[in-house]
Structure formats: C-alpha cells, structure tokens
Amino acid sequence: MPSMLDAVVVGAGPNGLTAAVELARRGCSVAVFEAKSTVGGGARTEELTLPGFRHDPCSAVHPLGVGSPAFKDLPLERYGLEWLHARLPMAHPWEDGTAAVLARSVSETAASFGPRDAGTYRRLVAPYLGKWDTLARDFMSLPLTALPRDPVTLARFGIGGLQPSTWLLRRFKDDKARALFAGLVGHAIAPLDGLATSAIGLVFALAAHAGGWPLPRGGSQAISDALAAYLKDLGGAVHTDYEVKRLDDLPPARAYVFDTAPSALARIAGFGGLYDGYRHGASVFKIDYALDGPVPWTAEEARHAGTVQIGPGSRDIGLALRQASTGTAPRTPFLITAQPSLVDPGRAPEGRHVFWAYGHVPQRWEGDLTEAMERQIERFAPGFRDRILARAVAGPPELAARNANYVGGDIACGAARGLQLILRPRLTLRPYHTPHPAVFLCSAATPPGPGVHGMSGHNAAKAVWRHLRSTGR
Ligand SMILES: Cc1cc2nc3c(=O)[nH]c(=O)nc-3n(C[C@H](O)[C@H](O)[C@H](O)COP(=O)(O)OP(=O)(O)OC[C@H]3O[C@@H](n4cnc5c(N)ncnc54)[C@H](O)[C@@H]3O)c2cc1C
Known about the structure:
Bound molecules: flavin-adenine dinucleotide
Shape: globular
Structural class: alpha/beta
Low-confidence stretches: none
Distance between the termini: 17 Å
Strand order of the largest sheet: 5-4-10-11-12-9-13
Largest sheet: 7 strands, mixed
Number of helices: 17
CATH topology of the domain at 5-45 and 217-279 and 414-470: FAD/NAD(P)-binding domain
Mean pLDDT: 95
C-alpha cells in the first residue's frame, strides 16, 4: 500500500464498490474497508436456510441495476455478471385467478389492465419509450452532477413525476391498473400521497419496458463480486472484517468516501449533529423460504414472473404503506415477493426453490409478521404452506444487525418522504460533500437513493475526482 492513498472507501456495498472502481479506473490508488466478512452490503447471497439453497437476504431483482448508467459503463460481464430474465418482470394476482402484469411489452401490460385502462397506460408511458438510457442517466445524475442530455424529456418526466401517485392513480378507472401501480410505489416504501411518488412508479414501469427486471445468475452477490474483482484487477484493495469507528482507524488518504448511513459518518468523522434532520423510514419484515416446489399460484401469470406483488387492491396497499410509515404494523400487509430459482435453477437443489417475501412494518418494530404474511400468500397460492421446508425470518432488529446502514431496520437508508426523496441527506445541491473537503458520502442516503444501481457511488466518485484534481493529484 502506498504511504498516502488517493482514496479510502468505507463500506463495500454496491455504492462503495462502484465509487472505488470509478476512482481506480481513473488511476487512483484505492482501498475499501468493510465491516462484514464478505463484500456486498445489500447485494449478497447466502445459504440462510438449508444447504444448497442460495438466498438473497436483501436485493434480488434489479430493474435499476440492469439499466444503471454506472454499471453499463463497467465490464461486469467479464467478471461473471449475467442477467437472467423471467418471462414476466412482475405479476400482480387477484384471488379470482386473474392477474395484472408488468410485461416487457407495453401492449401486454396494457391488455392485462382491461379495456377501460389500456389506453391510459399506453399514453402514460408513450413519451418515454425508447428513451430510457438518456432519461435514466439524467434523473439518476440529479442533483446536477451532470448536465441533462435530454432536458425536454427530463422536464416532462419531472412535472408528471413530482405529483403524488394518488393523483396519477385517479387516471385509471379500474383497480387492476391502480393496484399494480400503487404496488410499484411501495417498492420505495413511500406512502402513496407523498411528493414525487408518481416518479417512483413510472421509473419501475419504464425500466421493465426498457431492460426488464432481471436477476443475476447465482444471486445478487454476483454483482458485488464482479465489482470487487474488477476493482482488484485495477489495483484496488478490499479489506473485510474491518469496522471503521473513527477516522484514525483508516490509513492516510487524500479522500475518504463513506458508503454508510449519514449518522455513522457524522459519528466517525466528528460532524456532531450535521445530519440530525435526516429521517429514517419504515422497515420491512423479510422471510426467505426454502420450498420443495414452486409457489402454487392460482394465477398462471404469477408462475412465470420474477417478482409477484400481493396487494391485492390499491386501497389495501395504500393503507398498509401508511400504517407502516406511521407506526402500526398492518393487519393485511402488502407483500413484495421474488422467485429467483424460476430463472436460476442452480439456486436450489433439483426441483426445489428459494422464495423471498417482505411486508412493510414500522421502524424498530419487534413483532412477528410471519402468520399475517403466510395467510396473504395462501389467498393467492393455496397450498403454499405445505411446500415450506425452512424459513429464515428477519424483522427490523435482525435487519439492523445485518447491516449498520439499516438504521432501525430502514432498508432504504432514509425515508422516501417529502423533499428527502429527491434531496438527501440535506437540502443541498452538493449531497456527496461534507463540511470536510476530503470527506464524502456515497451511500443510498444520497441521490438517486436506494436500489442496487451504483449511481450514488458513481456520482460521489465524480465529486471526489474533482477534489483530487483541485488538490494537485
Ligand atoms: C430486504 C431487502 C430487499 C431489497 N431488495 C432490493 C431489490 O430487489 N432490488 C434492489 O435494487 N434493491 C433492493 N434492496 C435495496 C438495496 O439492497 C440497497 O438500496 C443497496 O444495497 C444500497 O447500497 P449501498 O452501497 O448504499 O449500501 P449497502 O448495500 O447497505 O452497503 C453498505 C456497506 O457498508 C458497510 N458498513 C457500514 N458501516 C460501516 C463501518 N462503520 N465500517 C465498515 N463498513 C461499514 C456495511 O456492512 C455494508 O456492507 C433491498 C434491501 C433489503 C434489505
């Protein structure tokens, strides 16, 4: 290791690893320090239940990963990353055996909503079709780390997207379209009436039509391993089992980049109450299942979808999200589920499956949602319980123990509410900077926020690079 590194990164989540890679690609000497014994943060894969069952404790499905401008610029396929697609990105079943679907094709999606809403959906997404690459680069680079390439489309997206999703839902006449779209907003754990929640739903829908909602072969660990392997080839170092508690724990460097919660950065770097105004949001109750067969969904479409949303209706979803955000565990949780071994049989022994489900609960909630979740799944997949071989259960305390960034179990590293959805962790156009010119933040607490896309790390690396250049590197 040189006596003075160009950059030290704290935390080997997707954003920390992306920031490290971006700097190493520019010729910087970089070392990453990670508290856990393996890299990945929220993009990891483990045998959580039984031998041979490879579960993703956190992220499983990656609409923003496959479409990420940061990842597209990196040769991650050369390091083993392979995206696998289910026939349908997502299905949203109803108890009568029908389902709304989010398909790769706009027509198939629109048709599943029924004749009264098909045209509305087509008109909603039409202005953005074929423009994902530019649009994603533009909105994921906000606030202003790069000039927009297509300001007109970005402005149109911004004006529509800033509306609460409850306004957008009113455009649909039937609940199939409303429920599917409300569920999309739920992926960001945002109450439906929040500012800019229309943008969340639109982003997930457009991502499905542009690049799908794929899963990496072998699990989400494949993303992290590819980033770490590329970093090592570029000369970067990764140190695991190294929890950073003070700046003094780190070697001398020209820049320090934190893939941590803002409160942890403030504690480590001595920034006092700098981020006291930053709010953490609701949590989830997550269950990873080992099953002795596929989930017996009544709706045929759900048997072919990588992700299945269980609402069912938009009112139920809105209520569940509101309750979780205001401190009550929902009696009827809204569930997001993923079926990795449908597309990746190697994730489980032959004929068997891994299955993942979570429902939203209040931050720091200590109850058990297992019964309520399985009751919900049984409504749409009778006989599900009989297929369970083992389950690994994690509520807010267990999630917080798995990853220091999940403060109170908040898996989004910050509430997606109010202006904080867009401007985080403070009201500033320089979110990656801190009061110390050599200390930076790059976690999901910075724009564009949660998800495995590496864009917070990518944007932060640009800020670090400018700092290094200005100090004569
Ligand atoms: C249950 C669940 C399901 C999810 N599903 C999806 C999904 O399907 N698709 C998707 O795109 N996203 C999903 N996410 C969200 C996604 O995992 C996160 O948004 C993403 O991982 C954030 O990346 P990050 O690099 O900012 O932080 P993290 O991935 O959280 O990484 C931070 C790293 O920093 C380390 N660290 C923290 N403090 C210190 C310290 N003091 N010293 C050293 N190391 C430290 C942590 O150990 C961790 O490894 C899910 C998350 C969870 C929990």
